[in-house]
Amino acid sequence: MEQYGDALICVRYRYDAKTHKQYKTVEIIVSESEWTPPAKYPDGTLVSLKIGINEMALQNQARAVGGRWNKQQQVWLVPVRSWKSL
């Protein structure tokens, strides 16, 4: 607190048993500015996801929630669903 004051967010201690060293790390605020959260998408809005050609598990998950492949854009279009609607 003496060194960083109100900018100090967190202090962590890391230990390396092999080298017998202790490391102290800090998280500090280096800038502050106004921010407006992005608008939430309504349920059912289609969002584009890039899923690799070999990522079959992710492709299957996209299909399972109603997603579909868009050949022209080379992306998966997946509908947004809030946790409340699941």
What does this structure look like?
The strands form two sheets. The chain has a three-stranded antiparallel beta sheet, with helices on one face. A two-stranded antiparallel sheet has the order 1-2. The chain is elongated. The chain has one helix and five strands; from the N terminus they run E-E-E-H-E-E. The protein has two domains: 1-31, no CATH class; 46-85, no CATH class. The chain has one helix at 56-64, and strands spanning 8-16, 21-28, 46-49, 68-70, 75-79. The termini are far apart.
Task: Sum up the structure in keywords.
single chain, 86 residues, mainly beta, 2 domains, 3-stranded antiparallel β-sheet, two-stranded antiparallel sheet, 10% helix
TL;DR of this structure?
The protein has two domains: 1-31, no CATH class; 46-85, no CATH class. It is 10% helix and 34% strand. It is built from one helix and five strands.
> Which whole number gives the mean pLDDT?
92
The major β-sheet equals:
3 strands, antiparallel
Q: Give the overall form.
A: elongated
Helix content: 10-25%
Q: List the uncertain runs.
A: none
Strand order of the largest sheet: 3-5-4
Query: Strand pairing plus helix content: what structural class?
Result: mainly beta
Q: Return the domain count.
A: 2
Q: What's the order of the H and E elements? A: EEEHEE
Roughly how many Å is the radius of gyration? Answer: 22 Å
Distance, first to last CA: 45 Å
Number of helices: 1
Strand percentage lies at 25-35%
Q: What is the count of β-strands?
A: 5
